[in-house]
Amino acid sequence: MLFIKAAVTLALIYWLMARVDVETVRRTLAQSNLVFILLSFVALSAVFAVGCIRWWILIGHLGLSIPFRQVLPSYYLGLFFNNFLPTGVGGDVARTIHLNLRGHSAKPLIGSALADRAIGLVVMLLMGAVSILLSPELHVENDQKLYLVMLTALGIVSGALLFWFSDRLPIEKLWKRYQHTRIRKTILEVIHLCFTYRTAVKQVFAAMILSVMVQSLAILTYYLLANSIGIELSLVTFFAFVSIVQLATSLPISIGGLGIREGVMVALLTSVNVDVHLAATLSLLFLLVLWLCTLPGAVVLLLDKGRRSVAAKETA
In this structure, what are the phi and psi dihedrals at residue 87, rounded to the nearest 5 degrees? Predict the structure, then answer.
C-alpha cells in the first residue's frame, strides 16, 4: 500500500508539472510580494496554535490534566508527521503516542483526537457549503444550490441525532459481550469516551468556535499567498476552494496528501479562469510555507531521540 501511495503521489506531481512551464513558475515566484508571504507564515502558525488549544480543551474533558506546554510539542510532532505519512491523519496517531509515552492514558488521548478531528471536519464542511452558495466567482445553478442545502441539512440533522441520542446505542451491551477481548473492547471504550462529549456543551462549543478560527486562518494563508502573486479572487471563493482541497487531502491515497492538495487546488483555480502557472505557483508556495511552519515538529523528534540516546548511555 505504501508503494502504491508513493506511486500515486509521484504520478500526481508529474501530471501537475507536465501542465506548466517551470521557468514561468520560477519567474512568478521571484516576482512575488514578500510581505504577503511573511504574513502567510504568521497566519499558518496561528492555525497550529489555535488547533493545539482546541485539542487541549477536548483532552481536559476526558479527565487528563496535561499542561499546555506539554501538549504543544506533541501537536507539532503530529503536524510534522502529517506531511510524510501515507495519510492526512497519521499525525493524530503520532501526537497521541507521543503523549502516551509520557505517562498519559492512551484511550482518552485517542478519544480526544477523534473528537478534535470530527469537530474540525464538521465546521469545515459547513463553512465550505455556505461559501459555495455565496461565492461570486462560482456560478451555481439554483437547483444545485437546493441540493447542496438539502444535503448539508441532512448531514447536520443526522449527526446531531446520532450525537445527542448516543446513549441509546448498545455500546454497553457490546462492551459486556467483548470485555474479554482486547481490540474490540478498546474500540468500544474509545467510542464511549467520544460520546461523552454530549454532556460537555461548553467544551464542544469552544472547540467549534476555535475550528472556525482555524479554518478562517488557513484560508487567509491561501488568500495572502494568492495576492502575493497577483491572483485576484474573492475571499469567499477561497473559503469554498480550501474546504474542498482539505477534504481531498484527507483521503489516504497519497503520502501526506502531496500531489492531491496541489492538483485539486490547480483544477479548482483554473475552473474560474486563473492562469495555470499562477495556480501551480500558489500550490507550491503553500506547500513551502506548510513545510517550514511544521519544522518545529522535526525539532521535537530530534530532541526526543537525543534524550533517549543520553538515557541509554547513562544506563549502560
Answer: -160, 155
